[in-house]
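TL;DR need structure tokens for one chain.
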Amino acid sequence: SNAAKKILENENAIQIWLYVFDISDEDSTKAVAARLIAIMCTNNMICQQQLRQLKGIELFVQAISKYTDLHKPVVGKKAGIKLGQHSDNDLENPEEYRGGGEVSVLIAGILDCLCKGVVGNARNESKLAQVEGIDA
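>> reply
TL;DR here they are.
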């Protein structure tokens, strides 16, 4: 509700959730923190400002960078891509690669947060570009 958001905004909930995101070793905990920040930042300039000032944008870009370093893309047959007249028999274990991979709940939460907390806010978009969050 808007009343709850206002209370959490005044209590600097963004700061608490960024702290939880930063110190947690569990992707699922980080994902929940990112999702809560996204909810708070939705159409809320004050929370978007807090996200920027508390270096949340930098924290999320670092998390994406770390994730991509540890999870190299899967391509070709391992990703389940079939070119021409190949069948499932061409794969060593077709069930292992069905669907071409998964999207991490952590990355989904971070992208949601960046969408709600950065996109449409000129200062936050500028900060994202400054921390190499996008290609210039």
